[in-house]
Amino acid sequence: MEKKSMTALVSAFSRAYHSAQNSEKVFDDYLAKKIFRKDEYEQIASNMSKGISFFNPSFVGTEEEALRWIVNNNLSPTPLGRAAFAEEALENAVRVCGAEQYLIFAAGYDTFAYRQPDWAAKIQIFEIDQPATGADKQKRIQSLVVEKPVNLNYVSVDFTERNWESKIIASSEFNQSKMSFCSLLGLSYYLSKETFSETISTISSIVPKGSTIVFDYPDEDTYAQEAGERVKKSIALASAANEKMLASYSYLELERLLSHGSFSIYKHLKPSEITNQYFKKYNQSNSKCPIKAFDNVNYCLAIKK
Question: CA distances (Å), 155 to each of 48, 110, 136, in order?
Fold first, then answer.
């Protein structure tokens, strides 16, 4: 039996903590904390702060200071940065390019559909995830909203099955001829290169030209001996949660993979660019505990040719 994704839950916790604890926000997921029970949120926070010796053996400070250090350094940089990058690109795709469908692959505990701005009311949103995580998320959301947004569609998909795209196509609101924006955040790490390539090609087969995909990915130095300590900690944590990271890519390798699926890179951000573009303003207000993008994680926006 499949289990809900623990990495997705920790990602939601990092977004929740950031939104609740800061006036200057990198990304404001103000609903994230509400998907947790109070005792559950406090338990995760306590467990994290008590793990400071794993993250930073030389740290000296209170439990709350330890938690903030862990969140800012190890948990939130990628979830916050990639969410800001993706939703900024989504708005542009809808307002400027005419995208009419938003497909959120491996949706996890994403809350966009429940805090959607006015410009999103005209698009159809599809939360696509494996059954266990999808069911857990929907159960949690029930306590937040009176009714499901009219433009939201749930699609339960096992990505290990053949022809998984048929589940999306079968959704009554999905239209293969409408321009789509597809989010694959946090997905590339846990798929083999072959499976990730097949996923991109499959998505390409069900969306028209001009459609967009957005994702984050680990570069070719991720598993090298000289990779940063934060990266090594992330790999260890994912393995401990039985969600092993499987692949990494060079820029040229990524270009070839996307081209095979008829996509070309439109925008690509390296860690230094991510920090400057999304964390600079926050860091100016929080110089004692800044946020810096992970050294080996890049963001990519690609368009179907």
Answer: 32, 14, 14
14-65 residue pLDDT tens: 999 999 999 999 999 999 999 999 999 999 999 999 999 999 999 999 999 9
Q: Answer whether 179's CB lies under 8 Å from 101's CB.
A: yes
Q: Where are the domains of the chain?
A: 6-75, 78-230+244-304
Cα 30-266-284 angle, rounded to 5 deg:
45
- The CATH code for residues 78-230+244-304 is 3.40.50.150
d(CA 275, CA 292): 6
Instruction: Say if residues 248 and 220 touch (Cβ distance below 8 Å).
Output: yes
DSSP H helices, 103-164, are: 131-141
Q: Which is nearest to 123 in space by CA: 180, 164, 71?
A: 180
C-beta of residue 296 within 8 angstroms of C-beta of residue 221: yes
Give the strands of the sheet with 152-156, arranged side by side: 152-156, 124-129, 101-105, 180-183, 212-218, 297-304, 263-269
**Closest to 168 (Cα-Cα) out of 183, 181, 179, 157:** 157
Per DSSP, 173 falls in state T
Instruction: Report how far residue 203's alpha carbon sits from residue 209's, in angstroms, rounded to the nearest whole number.
Output: 11
pTM: 0.92
